[in-house]
Specification:
The chain is α+β, with helices and mostly antiparallel strands. The chain has 2 domains: 31-233, no CATH class; 238-385, Porin (Beta Barrel), CATH 2.40.160. 15% of the residues lie in helices and 46% in strands. The longest helix is centred in the first third of the chain and has 20 residues, at 2-21. The relative contact order is 0.11.
Length: 386
């Protein structure tokens, strides 16, 4: 029974972040229109490719994975459909100075849905040309083309496998909606094919195509020398550190409070402001005090050689400078130096997930020996130095 409880605790600690990555927080302030025309899981748009056009116009392609490009191989046809549908609504675009956001949602069962939002400029802007005054439009018009597709492989989190619904989005930023006609002459299909080819070469070079990858590239229709090659946008922001690790702590085990001192090395890296991954190897010393004068030694030191792997996630709240961090960690230590009878021979210490606040951490754990015999739970409070 104890082994089953331990397995459940470890599974919950390790898998909680994976589930959080693949699910979105519930939206409470959306109305029905927003639920239709806004992407329900925008954080899944991991890969971004920008095609720069003339006069500051541009097209941005976003997909969840390489499978999403399959639905954009004929992007010229999709844009032509958008253009033809906008021609049915000429009266909607009489005010030239207003900026507009037009959302198209592609649905194979219900057809293409469209929403138009019109935004008046803040104040009035003008330009003087040859002693004449013309009203100036500053903000660009935006067209979103949104679609969804099922993952090519089923997810097996339960007995019944199911398929994830993943998004793709094409965003067109135009000085004026009339620029949409120019896009019909660009052969954008060739650019999508180029993206797909570069993606295949990137994967063949040994790069992993996993959830943590964020690919990006830029293309220019007027000057190909300004193109940038496909790359992982997270690599440039990844910070690596190799530092000494020291921590002092106190913990309760077998109804005894014992201080501890850990010293070793720590390697960790960060990909963004909310996540850190740490690898630690250190000697963990526990001090027991012998109250029997005839035993000789008054302080008995028991040392564990410990390896620790942990991910730290900040629970960010608005206005909170020092948030509590979830410490998703797993550690295993083996007793290499035994003094006294407080611990058995061949003892292990297993560390479980906990929490950090600044340089304080609270971590539960288990002491056991001979394959989970004589299991003793513990709870430690420690201070580590950076």
């Amino acid at each position: 029974m104890l082994k089953k409880i331990l397995f459940c605790m470890l599974t919950a600690g390790i898998s909680v972040n994976l589930y959080a990555q693949l699910s979105e927080a519930p939206v409470t302030k959306y109305n029905k229109t927003n639920l239709i025309f806004d992407i329900t899981n925008p954080s899944w748009l991991h890969h971004t490719f920008v095609i720069n056009l003339s006069a500051g116009n541009k097209i941005k392609i976003e997909v969840a994975d390489q499978q999403g490009l399959q639905y954009l191989y004929n992007i010229d046809s999709i844009i032509r459909q958008v253009y033809e549908k906008l021609q049915l609504l000429p009266d909607s675009f009489k005010t030239e100075q207003n900026s507009r956001r037009i959302d198209f949602v592609c649905d194979k069962t219900a057809g293409m849905k469209m929403r138009i939002q019109d935004f008046a400029p803040v104040g009035q802007s003008y330009v003087f040309q040859k002693n004449e005054l013309f009203q100036l439009k500053i903000e660009q018009d935006t067209i979103h083309i949104i679609g969804y597709y099922k993952s090519d492989k089923p997810v097996r989190w339960s007995k019944t496998p199911y398929y994830l619904s993943k998004p793709y989005r094409v965003t067109m930023l135009l000085n004026n909606l009339s620029g949409l006609a120019e896009c019909l002459q660009l052969n954008l299909n060739a650019y999508v094919g180029k993206i797909n080819l570069e993606w295949m070469e990137y994967r063949q070079a040994g790069k992993k195509d996993n959830w943590g990858t964020r690919l990006k590239a830029t293309y220019n229709v007027l000057d190909s020398s300004k193109n940038t090659r496909l790359s992982n946008s997270l690599l440039g922001s990844k910070m690596k550190y190799l530092l000494p690790y020291i921590s002092f702590g106190i913990q309760n085990m077998q109804n005894i409070f014992t201080p501890s001192l850990a010293a070793g090395m720590e390697y960790y890296y960060t990909r963004n402001n909310n996540k850190e991954r740490h690898f630690l190897l250190y000697a963990d010393n526990y001090f027991f005090f012998n109250n029997n004068p005839s035993a000789g030694k008054k302080i008995l030191v028991n040392t564990f050689a410990t390896f620790q792997l942990k991910n730290i996630y900040k629970q960010v709240n608005a206005g909170e400078e020092d948030p509590i961090k979830y410490n998703e960690q797993f550690s295993i230590g083996y007793l290499v130096n035994r003094n006294g009878t407080y611990l058995e021979k061949n003892s292990f210490r297993l560390g479980l997930p906990g929490f950090n606040y600044r340089n304080l951490q609270v971590l539960p754990g288990l002491f056991f020996n001979d394959f989970f015999k004589q299991v003793s739970p513990s709870l430690s409070l420690s201070v580590f130095f950076e």
